[in-house]
Structure formats: structure tokens, C-alpha cells
User: Fold this.
Amino acid sequence: MKEAGTPGAWLELSVAADIEAVEAVAEILGRSAPAGTSVEPAFELTDEGLGARVDPSRPAIVRAYLPASDSAAAARLAAEASEALGHLQAFGLRPIGELTTRLVHEADWAEAWKAHFPVLRVGRRLVIRPTWRRLRRSPDDVVLALDPGMAFGTGLHPTTRLCLAGVESLADRGLLDGARILDVGCGSGILAIAAVKLGAREALGLDTDPIAVNATSAHAARNRMAGRIEAREASLPSREGPFDVVLANLIASVLIDLSPRLRDEVGIGGVVLASGIFIDREPEVRESFSKVGLDVAARAAEGEWVALEAVRR
Assistant:
């Protein structure tokens, strides 16, 4: 830590965690990190290094960065994060590694972090391409150009991939053609962009985090969707319904709390595509949806995560 008193230095915190524990670890590290957190699932490169295949059986790496110009403050925040991670391990989640730290200078970070984000294919057609990566494009590819950064939703996490696969399924059945989309907790805007590229007429993204709102707007512009995707710093109700499809990549407890409002955002026969559900909480989410008139019509799972497609009766 002796070098950490210099301007332009960041203290990197990293933890190897089983996919079950990723969300909880990211929340703990994010308490201290103004630049947010990143999740790097284990993957192997394919297609001569131009693509990647995620391996959910291996631990992911959760990273966060603290300003290190004040070495004492950075050390204190790192110690607090380490203590909180120790408490988390008491809940018996699958393996969580020790917190490791290293000093990173901005000149190094500007390029080094990009190695953790390869081109990623999701479903049959969707391709997530970091803007600095080359892509050997197939005729049917629907390419989403993203700069992974502070907002959640790069496509690497199973909850995002499940939701993207659900969006593609809706498109395959013609349910996105000309549709109005609401993306609740829009994060990076990846779901709204995918929906519009797959046939939706327009999308509104809501998020309580201004960083996410800015990221969605920037990514919409980068994908030439600025006129069809709007992002606002807000929560439900949107006061813009009814929508044809509501996308909600949240967590189970939030989905349960918001279930009446999610229902109110769609018309009769409208679809709520919900992800971020840990498998143990699936029955509770199903019950809360059923009580408010949302009937689960389809289900998808990856590892310990579940996505549900529900239709308003």
C-alpha cells in the first residue's frame, strides 16, 4: 500500500466466488466502490479468440476499485469489505475465496480491464460485442455493441443471459413485432436494445441509479437506437402504460414486492419477463405473480438462476 498515496491510483479488490454467491459478493464490494463492480465468469476462448464460452461450474471473479490517493481510507474500506465477506461465508453459500488486493494505476487500467470482456454469443442470434473487439459476423447475427462499465448488465451474468434468451424467444414468436417495451431496472440498457433490435417499436428504461440511466442512453446512441429508447431515473409506476412487454431483471424479493405494479404496466395478454430469481425463491415469485393475475407460461434456468415468462390474464 505504500504507493497508494499517489494520484491516479486505484486499489483493486477481487474475490473468487461460486455463481450462487456472486450477487451477494458484488453488493458487499459495491458498498465501498464508487466505480461499481464487475463480474467475470470463468470462460474459455473460442473461434480463434473472437468468442467465448462461459463455464458456470467454475467460480467467477468479482472486482471493485477504490480510489487509492488516500491510502489509509482505501485500507480501511478494504478491511471493512473483508470483514463483511467473512460474515457472508457464515450463511453457507458455496465457496467464496479470500479478498485479494493490488494497486492499479489509471494508465494500466485503461487497457488491462478490457481483457476480461470477450465477444459473447447468447441464444441463436444475439451477440454482445465490446466496442473494441473485432467480430466475425454471421448473416443472422443481431449485434449489441456495449462498453462494459459501471452499470450492471453486460450479458456475462446468467440472469442477463436468461433474460436475453427470453427476449429472443418472444421475438421468434412474433411478440415483439411493433411492441412497446418497459425495462425495469435497465442497468446498461442491454435488454431494451436487444428488444428493439429484434423488432420492438420502442422501449422505456427505468432505473433508480443515474449511472445506469446514463449508460442506457449512451448505449442506445452507440447502437443507433437513441430515437427509440428512452431512459429515466425513476421506478414504478411508469405512468406510460400499458406496455406489451415488461422486462424485469431484478431479484426475487424485489419482483415479489413489485408484482402488482409489474402487472399494472401490461395490458391483458401482455408479458412480464422476470429474471434474477435464485431457484430457491422461484415458488415465492410464482405465488406472488399468480395472486396478482400473472400466469407463468414459460420457464428457463441456468445453474441456480431462473427466468419466468408470465402473461396477464
Remarks:
- The chain has a mean pLDDT of 86.
- Helices lie at 22-30, 71-89, 106-112, 158-172, 190-197, 210-222, 252-264, 282-291.
